[in-house]
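ARCHIVE CARD
Drawer: 12
Card no.: 0347
Subject: one protein chain, sequence and derived structure
Cross-reference: see card 0346
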Amino acid sequence: MKPKALLARLQAGQFANVHYRDFIACLEYCGWRLRRVRGSHAIYGHDGSPDDMNVQPAPDGTAKPYQLRAFLLQEARRASKGTGT
């Protein structure tokens, strides 16, 4: 799925069956960059956000819904400060 389409899907509240690799592409599309990896945990950061995002895939290869919601919350905070994509 294309990152822009996934972002629209997430903003519509559809968090089920999102492939982890698609979520990572969406993170990077929105300006998040991989800072480090420790085990299965990938830490992403953004210059417009003071907080890092800790993401890891679910056992079935999908993104975890709570991480998708946390991503949207971070994006909303950045947008409200005028640093959104």
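Annotation on reverse: Residues 35 and 44 are 5 Å apart (CA to CA). The domain at 3-78 is CATH 3.30.920.30 (Metal Transport, Frataxin; Chain A).
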